[in-house]
Amino acid sequence: MVSVQPGNIVTGKVVRLHDFGAFVQLDEETTGLVHISEVDRDFVENIHAYLTEGQQVTVKVLAIKDDGRVDLSIKRTDPTWEDEVQRRSSTRIDKEFNQRLRKFMHQSDMIQGEVRRRRRSRQ
């Protein structure tokens, strides 16, 4: 019997494919869902291009919900995935972008205020 606990990496068999993801049987009693967004790091438009029914896959158990549903991920089994996520979240915010955004928001507020004043003057 496979130990199905969040964080565990296990092997299972793809038993059903749907547009939204793949159902993977982990053992006789446990089947989980790999959502299409958890199949590959790249955008997956057609799950059939990545997986086939009967295929053996390695998955990471993400969560076991209160109703017993099991969330799985294929892409998170790659150890470098964690590094990529941390690298993306730790990048510094582009200060120049923030300045441009603030300027745009200020101009937008000014324009909207002018439009409101003109509407009031017409009434």
Would you kindly provide a written description of the structure presented here, covering whatever features stand out?
With 123 residues, this protein is an alpha+beta fold. It folds into two domains: 9-85, OB fold (Dihydrolipoamide Acetyltransferase, E2P) (Beta Barrel), CATH 2.40.50.140; 92-122. The chain is built from two helices and five strands, in the order βββββαα. It has helices at residues 80-90, 95-122; strands at 9-18, 21-25, 31-35, 56-64, 70-73. It has a five-stranded mixed beta barrel. The protein is elongated and about 75 Å long. The relative contact order is 0.15.
Which helices and strands, and how do they pair?
Layout: E1 9-18, E2 21-25, E3 31-35, E4 56-64, E5 70-73, H1 80-90, H2 95-122
Parallel strand pairs: 3-5
Antiparallel strand pairs: 1-2, 1-4, 2-3, 4-5
